[in-house]
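Annex B. Sample input.
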Amino acid sequence: MMHVKQTHACRFCGCGLDHVFVDLGLTPLANRNLRADEISAEQSYPLVARVCKSCFLVQVDDSVAPEAIFSDYDYFSSYSDSWVAQACAYAAEMIARFNLDATSRVVEVASNDGYLLQHFVAAGVPVLGIEPAANVAAAARQRNIPTEIAFFGTNTAKALLERGVTADLTVANNVLAHVPAISDFVSGFAAILKPHGVATFEFPHVLNLIEKLQFDTIYHEHFSYLSMLTTERIFAANGLRLFDVEEITTHGGSLRAYACLAGAKHAVTQRVAELRERERQAGLDSLSGYEGFADRVAGVKRGFQAFLAEAKTAGRSVAAYGAAAKGNTFLNVCKATADDVIEVYDRSLAKQGKMLPGTHIPIVDPERMRTTKPDYLIVLPWNLLGEVQGAMRHLGDWGGRFVVAIPQVRIFDA
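Annex B, continued. Sample output.
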């Protein structure tokens, strides 16, 4: 059973939150990689996810201000080849489905380094990016992607409207879960959409989090964990109507929700009704669907700690690939250290030379693996396993093997 503890209020419906989904203890910010001179000032914060008994929104406590997380950010989307390819496919699909052209405008919120908008620009469709992290926005501007530095919400939307900025398509990939004031955020999209415009939102599906034990996707910057049932309620309360939904593979299984204004022409698809029923069958409209998760997480932790102990006893070295936020949650929850995992490889120049938060494992160039020759390589962004196996296949040259640890430890030959 879930631990019951009276606390806080639901960030959407205001109902008291007294059901703990999982308590992951004290962890540092998952995307805050450290220089050596920053270790002494590092802070950790409670990471507790609760589920609302009224609207069933799973949410973490507000223990860190968004400005402390997103104003300077180490995540650059363009360093994932598969992510850029998916963005290209998305742009082509949206252009065809909604007849976007040089008279249209696409506005992306949390546009990162322009990895997605560049494909609309190449097709001759005008764009505007909105990105709160100044360092990441600068990278987009260097690509000639018009980008504003701002947190999106009703105030930002009003400022855009005053300048005559409206959208035929708004894009919000992996950001709906990142905003604490979720109603204010969604209302902003309703404000800038043209009468028949479309808003798409991509976010990890809480059903996959539960069924596949993806607890490592829980961290402070992910304020919410969403089902379609809850998302539909949030949209309806803030001026949007859900008319279509797709299940996509990104981040271990996500939803792409399509929304429009209440009076827009877009008809509701059968996929909405089908997913609504599946979620109800899984119990996502009752507290019973969220019970027992914490005990299953404890089992994963024990299994990974046993793997590390066995590797050490056998004298085998363990490294990791991908200085990803999910990996940092995982390693910190499992109490791993630089004695357990000697180094982590990452292509991002912004991350190399730093250390992972909490564990202080050094982040190095992937080429270093040819020198270190680890026996095991843990793929922390397990959703990119295929991409990593292809890029690091030379691990097999010395008999090294790949490892993923969610939902349990699995070992693969290189």
